[in-house]
Amino acid sequence: MRKENVTDSEIIEMAWCDKTSFDSIEFITGVPEKDVIQLMRKNMKPSSFRMWRKRVSGRNAKHGKL
């Protein structure tokens, strides 16, 4: 469940940052990884989304625990 004061833009900014893990995003915003991915897909051009997914898929920093 998303926290009230968090905007889509803030979530996208955190997701775009290589140093912010999905766990951190969920802790801060209440939005789980799968919903972050859906939000990114909805708000990005297809080529930009594919580039982002390729970049974060195998990255330890994006999947590390808090």
Explain what you see.
Helices cover 67% and strands 0% of the residues. It has 66 residues and is mostly helical. The mean pLDDT is 89.
Describe the SSE topology:
Blueprint: H1 8-16, H2 22-29, H3 33-43, H4 46-57, H5 60-63
- Quaternary form: single chain
Total helices: the number is 5
The helix-strand sequence is HHHHH
Number of strands: 0
Query: How many whole angstroms does the radius of gyration measure?
Result: 11 Å
Shape: globular
Major β-sheet profile: none
**Distance from first to last alpha carbon:** 19 Å
Helical content, roughly? 55-70%
Low-confidence stretches: none
Tell me the β content.
under 5%
Supply the helix-strand structural class.
mainly alpha
Question: Structurally, how many domains make up the residues?
Answer: 1
- Average of pLDDT: 89
Q: In short, what is this structure?
A:
With 66 residues, this protein is an all-alpha fold.
List keywords for this structure.
66 residues, mainly alpha
